[in-house]
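hey so u asked for the seq, here:
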Amino acid sequence: MLPLTGYADRLSLRPGQTIRFHVSNATGIEAQASIVRILCADGNPAGPGIITQAIDDSPIRCSSPGPQHSPRGSYARIDDAGRCFATDVFSILCLIWPTRLTAGRQAIVSLADPDSADGFTLGLDEAGRLCVNHGVSGGDIAVVQEPLVERNWYAIWLTVDGGDRSKASQGMSEIDLGFQPLHPRLGAASHPRTVRKAASLEMGGALSAPLLLAASDPARPKHHFNGKIEAPCILDRPPGEAEIDALAQGKPIEAAVAAWDFSRGIASSRIEDCRSKALHGRLFNTPARGMTGACWRAKEMCWRHALREYAAIHFHDDDIDDCGWPVAFEWTVPSSMRSGAFALLLSAGDAQDNIPFFIVPPKGRATADLAILVSTFTYTVYGNHARPEWSNDADWRERWKRQSSAWGANAHNPGDHVEYGLSTYNTHSDGSGISIASWHRPMLNLRIGYITYPDPEIRGSGMRHFPADTHLIAWLEAKGIAYDLISDQELHDEGVDLLGNYRTLMTGSHPEYHTPRTLDAIEAWRDRGGRLCYLGGNGFYWKVALSPEKEGVIEIRRGEGGIRAWAAEPGEYYNQFDGEYGGLWRRNGRPPQNLCGVGFTAQGNYAGSYYRKCPEAGDPRVDWMFEGIEGDVFGDHGLGGHGAAGFELDRADKRLGTPEHALVVAASENHPPDTPWVLVPEEQLTHIVTWPGEPYRDLIRADMVFFETPAGGAVFSVGSITFCGSLPSEGFDNDISRLLENVLRRFLDPEPFRMPDP
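ran it, structure tokens below
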């Protein structure tokens, strides 16, 4: 746990609106807070360094919280379920698909009083065996001796029968506990395994406790289950063989007094009891829904078309969507505040932290002709990305620490603080991909000065996302060019109307994640005559969905194709939040080339090269952008990998939507041979054949593209994630800076662009 950290309840807001900051403070010293404007968040001494401006308006203290717990682990809670158990006999049945049997004790169904041994928890013991124990974490009542097998479906059941008078008089009940493998692997048992014994089980105070699924202890949930749960139900008698068979086949058990159908309300956090008691429940920490269940047969890939086959929920012990910490400070943005990047600075003794956020213009107004799109969806999807090198490469880790210290950068790495949850570029503890991201928790890489990649030569910044995007902000400030910041949250909410008052829209270095609404808005605005400057690489690549219940919770399904940190399970390519096919925008029929002329083609290590002008650079349609740039080679410098063209590269492809009249004015070359460059998987058909039919090595390049649109607008794309990192070189006086200034001056000029003659 960090001694001092926090998060904001939103990442962007307007003048007059209020932002609240949730804080954990373990220092024992009262935290102090102030607001600053951020002009540059990169501490690289070869550039302008970290630049902030104090704001003469202080946040209001709301409380002085101490250390806070991060409540990781998803589960379901059902209140008032105790009335289903207030009889002499009851049974619980459900289907499970365990995914991490080595995780220690795990609860599947629990009705227990946390202050006594009353009640029970049905779950798994340390050896991965089905068991039932007293209360929340009391001693075992019964254990089925044969351990389960990971990633195999089981029907499980527990019956408690206190109706036998001879046993009841001794305070004893008959306990039946068993499981039935549904799709046994070769050599695995296929018949039921059961245990029966007499044991004392006092329900008492547990009858007023909530029923939990995938966790125990309603006061502070723990013993989280890793795996899928499907069709839990309660009977007021022992189940028969026919009822266990019906459960395994995904059929309703008519005799159940309560039965939760997880195929209902998949987009929500609600679970529905389809019996008369209507004991509906709520999910916490957003487990994965729309998951294939025990009766999925691979005939349907979309959960909307076969709900009964997608009636499972995948729970994890490290899911998190909201830390739920108290509000320590709040700040209402003054009506006169100019749009820009800001941060709350926290301090308590020697402990410090900062929480960036963004102020956008008043609704319906633009204070400049230029808008910068802040990629808060991408920041959130990458939130707390723990690089594998942090755990696997001690030299890399030490270089990161030395460089962070030398630059006065943010010293906390997500790899050391998994308690705040990891990113969707990481996996859960059971090996499944993290598909849900949230900004309602500290995101340690969304910080002033955060370094993503240490540089062996301590020259390049190794910056990505927010710190890298501030290279563009610093350049605009240095050039005195007026701008507004808008975030993709406002773009999603308001659509093309948000862009209507702007002549030019610029992206940052990596606008990778988009919803259908954000793409629709940019495309519609472009087609109405807007001028788009795409200043990054690997942009407009993945499709995401937003929670319909809570702003700031975002879903990604890493489906077929794409450079991926993990791959979704077969049949689980459709989003739970909107029911649409997820994955790449290219797989959804909207390749980035169709929007901005270029799309992701290759990736290497964090290293950059230069551009070389193409013959088209001399065309009168574009020669103005190269005024003041001598020679054919430019961009062989920069804070990002030492070159303007590097790390992740985009190229033109007319088959994917690059307009026929588009000009490739420059292309990168000579990417360092010691960097393991790879094509994106969607460009490869076999080990020797590429989808475009061009040689493998020829596709490793960044194309700089320009084209006009019929309504008088234009598009300029650079095809490289390190482009903005070259803007600060030589005090912003360099060829990349001149190129962008030439482009922007023309794009801000009201004179319409004209389409070339056919």
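The chain has a mean pLDDT of 94. The two ends are 63 Å apart (CA to CA).
lmk if thats what u needed
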